[in-house]
Design goal:
This protein has 93 residues and is an all-alpha fold. It has a domain at 2-66. The chain contains five helices and no strands. It has helices at residues 2-10, 16-28, 30-51, 62-66, 68-81.
Length: 93
C-alpha cells in the first residue's frame, strides 16, 4: 500500500515528494525512487503526530535551494559539454 501511495505522490505537481522522486529516479531508477519516496512518507507519518506539528510542504525547489553552488556548477558543466561558454551574473532582487 505504501508503494501505491508513493506512486501517487510522485505524480503530483509542485511538491517535495515529486521533486524527490524525479531527482532519485534519474540516478537510481524508478522502482528504487518509489521505495525512497515511500520511506519518506513513512517517516513523515511517524514524526508529524509524534511531534504534534502540522505538515509543512517544502516545495519542488527544496533540493535546488539546499545546495545552490552544486546546482550552479552542475548546470554550467552541462552547458559547457553542449558547447556553450557560460558567464553567470546574479540578478538584482
Amino acid at each position: 500500500m505504501l508503494f501505491e501511495v508513493a506512486h501517487a505522490a510522485s505524480k503530483t505537481k509542485d511538491t517535495y515528494l515529486s521533486a524527490q522522486y524525479r531527482r532519485l529516479a534519474t540516478r537510481r531508477g524508478k522502482q528504487r525512487a518509489l521505495i525512497a519516496v515511500g520511506h519518506s512518507i513513512l517517516v513523515m507519518a511517524y514524526h508529524i503526530p509524534h511531534r504534534r506539528v502540522p505538515y509543512r510542504e517544502l516545495g519542488p525547489l527544496y533540493f535546488d535551494h539546499l545546495d545552490r553552488q552544486r546546482v550552479q556548477q552542475r548546470l554550467v558543466q552541462r552547458l559547457e559539454r553542449l558547447g556553450y561558454a557560460v558567464n553567470l551574473q546574479p540578478v538584482a532582487a
